[in-house]
Amino acid sequence: MEEVLDLYAKPYDAHRPLLCMDETSKQLLEDTRPALPPQPGQRARQDYEYERQGVCNLFLWFEPLRCQRHVQVTERRTAVDWAHFMQELAEVHYPDAEKIVVVLDNLNTHGTGSFYDAFPPAQAKQLAGRFEFHYTPKHGSWLNMAEIELSALSRTCLDRRIPDQEMLTREVSAWERQRNAKAVTVNWRFTTADARIKLKKLYPTISV
């Protein structure tokens, strides 16, 4: 926990940008009947019936000090999908960074082994060398700022029926552009000093 909190307290370093990464899923739902358009003094009305059209995965990275984020919609969230998402992060968004520092949860696909599942060994090794991973502790995923971004995405963009992956991608891209243009960030105030006071019960007791 303190390792992640200390990272958040460091100043911006373009050579070692700090990012948070997380993922979520979105169930695709299609209306069985067209919705009724809004009328004066009345909202649009939607039938309670719908058809399930599968599930999509959303990968998200967020750089709090630059107030930038990117979301990628995929059909699945396998190790190979994650590896390709991280490849784009390194080679397209941060090609000049010496090391990309990433805070993420300890999911079994979130590791250098996934690069070897997706790429030839030499390429996987080179890509793995671009990253420095810092994992949130068990039951401590709330320490990952990307969770806050995913919550905002769910509340302001995904809280409605979306029928297919194409529309989901368009809507998420529009959300991303708007949020980046406004330079929305997370005002993180929880520090290591706070943790030692407020979460004292989680620390081991030293017997003397």
Q: Can you count the helices?
A: 7
Number of domains: 1
Which structural category do the helix and sheet elements fall into? alpha/beta
Q: Which word captures the global form?
A: globular
Instruction: Report low-confidence residues grouped into runs of 5 or more.
Output: none
Average the pLDDT over all residues and give the rounded result. 90
Can you tell me the CATH architecture?
A: 2-Layer Sandwich
Helix content class: 25-40%
Q: CATH top level?
A: Alpha Beta
* Strand ordering within the main sheet: 3-2-1-4-5
Number of strands: 5
The CATH topology corresponds to: Nucleotidyltransferase, domain 5
The radius of gyration is 20 Å
Q: Per DSSP, what share of the residues sits in E-state strands of 2 or more residues?
A: 15-25%
Largest sheet: 5 strands, mixed
Give the H and E element order. Answer: HEEEHEHHEHHH
Q: How far is it from the N-terminal to the C-terminal residue, by CA?
A: 25 Å
CATH superfamily: Ribonuclease H-like superfamily/Ribonuclease H
